[in-house]
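Hey,

Quick one before I head out. I ran the complex with beta-D-galactofuranose overnight. Inputs first:
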Amino acid sequence: MKAADLAHSDKPLNICVGFSQIGAESAWRSAETTSINEEAALRKVTLISNDAQQKQENQIKAIRSFIAQKVDAIILAPVVEAGWDNVLKEAKKANIPVILVDRGVKVSDDSLYTTLIASDFVEEGRMAAEKLVAAVDKNIPKSVSRTRNIAQIEGTTGAAPANDRASGFKEVIEKNPNFKIVKSQCGEFTRAKGKEVMEAFLKSGEKFDAVYAHNDDMALGAIQAIKEAGLKPGKDIVVVSIDGVKGAFQALIDGSLAACVECNPLLGPLAFDAIAAAKDGKKLAKQVIVDDKAFDAESAKKELKNRKY
Ligand code: GZL
């Protein structure tokens, strides 16, 4: 089901919803939190929020607390894919619908959640790979036969976007025989860790033609490390990332970022539309797919004034 097909209304819901958020690791995450908070106010929803500080056990505790408080629905942004069966069974037993936002889960029975509202991360990885290959081809003529070396900075280990963005990217790179991922390490979706990982890559003595970061915050950290090493991002090393936050748009415009695949975090309206549908007994598809598009310097210049995050 596409996000556009989810019925929308601004009518007040007058319900209580528990929201288990992963944390505040990136600009994208903060934008998502704001979107859910703002939409809750608009829809007259009492929102009980919990910031799990990146820990699954905190999310499980929060969900149990929401169940004890007999909330009408739960919104969950699951930090990792595995380990949710038991607590989601408790929510189901309490007849509380669970709406997953922005990351999926791997469960034994998909009736344990109502729907997942998220982008197609595998497709995001494919799009990022296509943009990276095109950008490197601009820097290195095809007549140069050597392997183009790629460094990958991964998102949180076990998280759906990290797993899927890696697999979509790999699928396309494998179709380009003279491109190779020579280094890959977790940067935890944060700018600081992304910079640290890139510094270590650069100190390893390996030569890189490109960096693929699973989100903008890690890409911006990597760009900082590349500059501090006396190299020119965009020229010496092409950088491509995913999210589409304002900082990335500025990097596209200044040329340090070659391409960025948007992953829309403004999921508040969709989350409450899904809750309204569930409360009305409507059947929802297991995934509501949020469409993404890729940006480069040209399109970023045009679009920057419209960006909300
Ligand atoms: C994607 C989301 C990811 C973003 C990161 O839906 O889960 O987590 O890409 C965020 O910026 O930290």
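The pocket of beta-D-galactofuranose is lined by residues 25-26, 28-29, 102-103, 118, 161, 189, 215, 217, 242-243, 263 (CB under 6 Å).

Talk tomorrow,
K.
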